[in-house]
Specification:
Radius of gyration of chain A: 13 Å
Order of helices and strands of chain B: EEEEEEEEEEE
Helix content of chain A: under 10%
Largest sheet of chain B: 7 strands, mixed
Oligomer: heterodimer
Shape of chain B: globular
Number of helices of chain A: 0
Shape of chain A: globular
Largest interface: A-B, 26 and 27 residues
Number of helices of chain B: 0
Helix content of chain B: under 10%
Distance between the termini of chain A: 36 Å
Number of strands of chain B: 11
Chain lengths: 111, 115
């Protein structure tokens, strides 16, 4: 059983469309991070959210941490082919240093 | 920013041999590093937490005698896959960083193929 469930698992859209990826859990997290990974590479950190209800924006990407710190979402506006990749959410529980990764969302943006 | 270097990027080895993968923090000291395994089109699974100067902490189900971890300095952790078998073929990734608040930096990964 995956502690962090991401949906959708696969997403293929046209350039210019908007999309939202969800990361849900029944557990509370101290923080939640979003990463983007390209084939053959390690994940790259996009953002860290720590406070319940927090919203962070990174250009066309908007990240939200749920009020109860059990879920998060990533919204991309006007997707571009360069956004293609595997998006991973990862959470830290309590004071643990280890991250628990979500199941991943493979995004493909078609030109 | 924090940089984590991982080598080799890819390696092919014969069944029964051992392979060592290095993970270095280039511009910061890392008392803790993490080793992950990733299968195609799947997420990252934490294998073990590497602690500088002490034994690694392995996740449930990970054979510590097969995946030897050494963290002898504040900038280097190594993962040795001993007596490798084809089922050990995978993408191995290390990470280090400033903790869960500031985020972690990942190495570029090592593609291991055992033939």
């Amino acid at each position: 059983t995956q502690l962090l469930e991401q949906s959708p698992q696969f997403l293929s859209i046209q350039e210019g469309e908007n999309l939202t990826v969800y990361c849900n859990s029944s557990s509370v997290f101290s923080s939640l991070q979003w990463y983007r990974q390209e084939p053959g590479e390690g994940p790259v950190l996009l953002v860290t959210v720590v406070t319940g209800g927090e919203v962070k924006k990174l250009k066309r990407l908007t990240f939200q941490f749920g009020d109860a710190r059990k879920d998060s979402s990533l919204h991309i506006t006007a997707a571009q082919p360069g956004d293609t990749g595997l998006y991973l959410c990862a959470g830290a529980r309590g004071s643990a240093r280890q991250l628990t990764f979500g199941s991943g969302t493979q995004l493909t943006v078609l030109p | 920013g924090a940089v984590v270097s991982q080598h080799p990027s890819w390696v092919i080895c014969k069944s029964g041999t051992s392979v060592k993968i290095e993970c270095r923090s280039l511009d910061f000291q890392a008392t803790t590093m993490f080793w992950y395994r990733q299968f195609p089109k799947q997420s990252l699974m934490l294998m073990a937490t590497s602690n500088e100067g002490s034994k690694a902490t392995y996740e449930q189900g990970v054979e510590k005698d097969k995946f030897l971890i050494n963290h002898a300095s504040l900038t280097l952790s190594t993962l040795t896959v001993t007596s490798a078998h084809p089922e050990d073929s995978s993408f191995y990734i290390c990470s280090a960083g400033q903790g869960y608040v500031y985020g972690y930096t990942f190495g570029s990964g090592t593609r291991l193929t055992v033939v």
